UniProtKB/TrEMBL annotation:
Coiled-coil residues: none
Keywords carried by this UniProt record: Membrane, Transmembrane, Transmembrane helix
The keyword Nucleotide-binding is annotated on this UniProt entry: no
This protein's name: DUF998 domain-containing protein
Membrane-spanning intervals of the chain: 12-34, 66-87, 99-120, 126-146, 158-180, 192-210
Keyword Transmembrane: yes
A Pfam family the protein falls into: DUF998
Amino acid sequence: MESTSQKVLQIGSILFSLAGVVYLLCEAISAYAWSNPSYQYAINYISDLGIPVVTQFMGRTINSPLYFVMNFGFFANGILFAIAYFMIMSALPTKRKMIGLAITVIYTIGIIMVGMFPGYDWWGEPFHGLGAMLAIVGGNLAILCGGLMSHRIIPQKWVSTLSVIFCIAGIISFALFLGINNNRYAAVFERMSVYTIMVWCIIFGLFVQVKSRRMNVLNDARNIKV
């Protein structure tokens, strides 16, 4: 029989994977809808997908028919990420989990700001930039904390190692993006700094789901023997 904590882990793991999948799916759908001009992943920023008007911004022509899909992706990812993180970290007895939870709140606020304030030339653009910084830095630090603390629930060293690698790659990519912001292909580094978070969500969610189910099988086997 499943314990309450194991059920929480399983639900949280599903929400984690869903957070990454929903975001990437919304991005792909929004990008596919572009036709005049076509969307280019190596040139156009992620934020271009959420702009609700046809405009020129930083030398790029913006025309995103399904801008609301991308903005929904920002909102949905932030909410799902926060719920999943809180559910999984609730299984930890340590007070150090509060650091990860606090950073998760910062990430969630940031990515919701990204969706609320599209990134083009208007009064809300500074809030978009602030939200993007909170989301990217906060998100990469959140996956670092989540990976490092997860061994207290399900001991697997590779998860902690992968989380460290993803966090470092994400932060470095964001720094490079800021450094070459006016470069034609700066969007490549922007994507790398965000995709580390989304891919980690999917991998970590699947990992916790599989491990928590195995824990249930082992517990059931022990109960039968008793």
